[in-house]
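hi! just following up on the protien thing from before. the input was this:
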Amino acid sequence: MARAVIDGVALEYDDFGAGEPLVFVHGAFIADAFRPLLAEPALASKFRLITYHRRGYGGSSRTSESMTFAIAASDCCALLSLLGVRRAHVVGHSHGANVALQLALDAPQLVQTLTLLEAGLIVGASAPLYRETLLQSGRRYAAAGARVAVDEFFQLRWPSYREDLPRVLPGALERAVADAGTFFEAELPGALDWKFEAEEAQRIRQPVLVVLGEQSVNLHPRFAETYRLLLEWLPDAEGFVLPAPTHFLQIENPQALAVALSNFCARHPTGET
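and the predicted 3d structure came back as:
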C-alpha cells in the first residue's frame, strides 16, 4: 500500500482503476475487509477504487487519543483532497458507515452517494441492548485480552467466521487482534457518545443505499431496526437486502454486493473521472 502523511498522520491507502472515484471506509478490526469486494469485476472494471487503513489500523499511524467519528471523517476528507478527489461515491461498513455518515454531514460537497453496510448506529428500541453489548465487549477486552474479545465480537456478528475468515482473508484475524486496542481504547468511547438520529439524517440529501445482510436479522434486533429507521429518516434512501450473509457481508457475498453497488452508483453519476 502507498502511504500518505497528512498533518503528521500517516494513512496507508490503495488507489487503482479508472472511472468515477469509489471510496471504502472499513469498520472495526478488519482493516482489509473490502479486499474481496474490490476484486469483483463489476467494480474493478468500472471505477477508481480507493481504500485505506483508518488511523490506528494496519500500518497507519497509531493513536492514543480518543478517536471520534468526526476525526475519522476528517482523515478521510484530507486523504481524498491529497488524491485530488473532488466528489466521490462513499461506502462504509459498520462503524465505517458511521464515519461515512459523519463525512456527509461535515463535507457534503465531497460525497456524491453513500452506501451504508449495516451502520453501527445506537438507535431505536434496540439501542440499550446494543449499547450493553458494546460495553460488555469492552469489559471482556480489559479482563480477558484482545484475542478473546475479538473472537467473541466476531462470533456475535459472523458465527462461521472461524472457518470462513482465514480462507478468504489469511492473516486478518491476527491483524484484528493487533489492532483491537484502537477500537476498544480509542474508538469505543466516542462511538458510545455519538448521536445520529432523524434530525441528523434529514441533513443528508445525497442518494443513499442502505444494505442489510439477509441473515443478520437472526443475530441481533438492532440490524433490522437500524435498516428500517435509516430508510425512514434519510430523505433519499433505498434499501437492499443482500442474500445470504451476516454482518461481514462484503466478505461473505462480495459478488452480489458489487453488482448492486455498481448499479446504484451508475444511477447517480458524479461526472468525475
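Residues 158 and 248 are 7 Å apart (CA to CA).
The chain has one domain: 2-267.
cheers
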